[in-house]
Design goal:
mainly alpha, 0% strand
Length: 51
């Protein structure tokens, strides 16, 4: 079964927020931080560390 990565991340994120119930500011901080890192000079560095 092939599932797109964005769909898997969205489903895991939804279930995590639903079951763990983190504060809204933490979710916003993680989303904003991930967006900023991905569009900065650290993006390729983080990508090579993950792979």
């Amino acid at each position: 079964m092939n599932v797109p990565l964005w769909l898997a991340i969205a489903a895991i994120g939804y279930l995590g927020v639903k079951h763990v119930r983190p504060p809204w500011w933490l979710v916003a901080l993680l989303l904003l931080g991930g967006y900023l890192v991905a569009h900065s000079t650290l993006g390729p560095v983080v990508g090579s560390l993950i792979n």
